[in-house]
Write a structure and sequence with these properties.
Helices cover 43% and strands 17% of the residues. It is α/β, with parallel strands linked by helices and 409 residues long. The chain has two domains: 268 residues, Rossmann fold (3-Layer(aba) Sandwich), CATH 3.40.50; 109 residues, Anticodon-binding domain of a subclass of class I aminoacyl-tRNA synthetases (Four Helix Bundle (Hemerythrin (Met), subunit A)), CATH 1.20.120. The strands form four sheets. A five-stranded parallel sheet has the order 5-4-3-11-12, sandwiched between helices. Helix 6 crosses helix 7 and helix 10 packs across helix 12. The longest helix is centred in the first third of the chain and has 19 residues. The two termini are 31 Å apart. The model has no long low-confidence stretch (mean pLDDT 96).
Amino acid sequence: MHAWPASEVPALPGKGRDLRIHDTATGGRVTLAPGPVARIYVCGITPYDATHMGHAATYNAFDLVQRVWLDTKRQVHYVQNVTDVDDPLLERAIRDGIDWVGLAERETALFREDMTALRMLPPQHYIGAVEAIPGIVPLVERLRDSGAAYELDGDIYFSVDADPHFGQVSNYTTELMRHLSAERGGDPDRPGKKNPLDPMLWMAAREGEPSWDGASLGLGRPGWHIECVAIALDHLGMGFDVQGGGSDLIFPHHEMGASHAQTLTGEFPMAKAYVHAGMVGLDGEKMSKSRGNLVFVSRLRRDGVDPAAIRLALLSHHYRADWEWTDQVLQDAVERLGRWRAAVSRPDGPSADALVEELREALSDDLDAPAALAAVDRWAALQAAEGGTDDSAPGLVSRAVDALLGVAL
């Protein structure tokens, strides 16, 4: 599966700062100092509907992580999956009377278009669950053969008790885990499971549903969590720098994925930092496909909204915050974009050297994009009020905003 084209990231004078970021597992900030190549895995979409603002906010957060690393003169090895076979996708295809493969391909293509328009840097490896099946099967077999997984009516379940570190990503109570498992695709009440929290690794073939040859596992398809584990281990290995996604993935997805990987390899932890973006709401509720309260990136683009304004709307909220999408949020972003473009259109202006360092400091401090926007606002206001004599300043501001915030002026 191919990703989307990369926009050029301008090089800035000097060098950026190492990233200090909130780690869900420890509950505090960690300073990430990768080697020459920083490694990040971000969980991708289940492509049964278009890209909504919640998706966009999540991928914007991890785009900023990449930009901070690139500014430190590191390379970035970024991997993202596409869950192109799963119950919600199959249910939507049946509801709409269309082929599930065609639905997945159509929505993945639209996701690529949205990411390109928003100037999100693409992953080096963009892997679908279906194409990962040959790598998933042997992992499930290893877990089963080692006693870390078991069969139940043809399905294969992972035993969470096999991982002594289980629970150390979310640090949730057992009661909350069980509640979230039922809410987010698990089956804690299924009779015969060794532990209600045990997640499915391999689902035996069901009538009318797609299935693949699982060798000794029989016909079936992979569970949700083992998909990302197989892709991450194949392309990044253990101990990569950041495991990212929305905060709704803390449990069960990232908790279970970590336990799968740690049990398979005997190494801990799977990732040096577990980083999660907040939820975007609309009309008082989390924006989600199940609720149908969605604002789509593609629809805004069709309505003529500049993608740079959409991106500024996302950046106006801290990535970890839960926030509400409103018309005013977008209008404020449109107006900010206009002020910034007017400021950099002049032939000279106030020195921008200090601004570049302000942007670097804000973003290295747990991706504080609102502080970064405020710094550019101050420079633009000074430009409007007093101007300046530095003929290199407008160009430097444009390059810095592009390189560090992903906004083209």
